[in-house]
Amino acid sequence: MPARLSFRPKALADTIRLTVLAKAEWPRHAKSLSAAHRRFAEQNGFVAASGTHLALPGRDGRVERMLVGIVADDAGDGSGGWMWGYAGLPLTLPLGSYRLDPEPATAAAATRIAIAWGIGSYAFDRYKKAPRSPASLVWPTLADRRTVQSFVRADGFARDLINTPAEDMGPDGLAEAALAMAKELGMTASVVEGEALRAQGYNLIHAVGRAAARAPRLIELGWGDPSHPRVALVGKGVCFDTGGLGIKPDAGMKLMKKDMGGAAHVLALARLVVEAKLKLRLQVLVPAVENSISGNAVRPLDIIRSKAGKTVEIGHTDAEGRLILADAFARAAEEKPELMLDFATLTGAARVALGPDLPALFANNDALSSALLAAGLAHDDPAWRMPLWKPYRSRIDSKNADMNNVSDGPFGGAIIAALFLQDFVPREAAWAHFDVVAWSPWPRPGRPEGAMMQGLRAAFAVLRDRYAP
Ligand code: BES
Ligand code: MN
Ligand code: ZN
């Protein structure tokens, strides 16, 4: 088990009792303390304000109990302050082993807290030792350990992929990671790479990725009984987005190692699906490219025939994500999925509209959308729906091709991108598209600056409901 799963199987003599309280619960709780501890808390000004903690000393000077303030459980409003409060603890509390006192009363609460603890123990330490290791938690008795471990591993796996610089996580590295994962989980895997993309009609993936030193590729993983309902997961795997010939200014380019965040999300989701042995036939598609610059780079107003057959005019080389996804969608369509989810760091516009906490959700199916939104609220992983507003579709008409990849104005950029994708969605499929940021721009409890998962737990909850084993 990796060290990041900072759980201890048993409460040993040296474990510290951890009591987590909302501010409103403090006066009552204070009354239950010894007079000495009550005075100690008072002199330290501790009132269980969210984000504060207080170590109550025992007679021998050891910590007898740790008190922690947290915002009240907001289950239902989805903002997740309660869960992130727990996630903030492993890297805030002094090193040690803690056991919850009282124990969570339900399996759901115990599991939710343990997931938070695990996610909050994450550190990106590939190139530098983490400044400290996480405090560990004695497994809450009722926690579903398998589910917790699966989530925490999937989350850490994906965040590592996103945090790793493009130098070490190019299309080759991403394919390697996907293939290693497939091997570990017993999934089938194949990769179409370089010129072979063109031979098989994936001209958009090839066009976007061909200028890079590391060849573009389409990674495909498969799993599950072919007689089960088919589900496709597609993730944008732009390992670095320079913008292409329409180069990004330096500030806009800086973070573009995370432009494969969608790919990381669907690989993590696939992990969860396989480990939970859901009753579905899974197809995972990751077009992996670097949107780079060279003499052979795709140019503005080039027209490329997509895998689906439609011709696409390149209005802007920086709207590359929708291009590679279109070809991946065409491959998905060949398997006639009943459900397709895609995750992509597709537009800056989604982030401008909703900020970094809320991924933009688009769906061609109201039941699917409602299920995802509800699961987001229930699992501290909210999304916000935006419309596939048909009247805007004419903005990407092209004079010389079947469509353009951009509109000519700054309006509704996330919607325009989603409408472009919609033209390639497999017939009959219920489809949902998550336009994610995948990056926490400032440090918050449980969410340090860096890679951040969005919609993963919500999407998995919906799949688990629909395809329960
Ligand atoms: N990867 C970017 C979108 C992005 C930018 C996501 C910043 C998160 C943060 C995408 O490929 C892109 O460049 N989109 C353009 C589209 C435009 C050229 C129509 C954008 O959003 O500006
Ligand atoms: Mn771009
Ligand atoms: Zn991009």
Which tags fit this structure?
469 residues; alpha/beta; nine-stranded mixed beta sheet; six-stranded mixed beta sheet; 15 helices; 20 strands; binds ligand BES; binds manganese (II) ion; binds zinc ion
Report on the architecture of this protein.
By secondary structure, the chain is α/β, with parallel strands linked by helices. The protein is built from 15 helices and 20 strands. Strands 7, 8, 9, 10, 11, 14, 15, 16 and 18 form a nine-stranded mixed beta sheet that branches. A six-stranded mixed beta sheet has the order 1-6-5-2-4-3, with helices on both faces. The protein has a three-stranded mixed beta sheet with strand order 12-13-17, with helices on one face. β3 and β4 form a beta hairpin. The chain starts with 6 loop residues before the first strand and ends with a helix. The protein binds ligand BES, manganese (II) ion and zinc ion. Ligand BES binds next to α12.
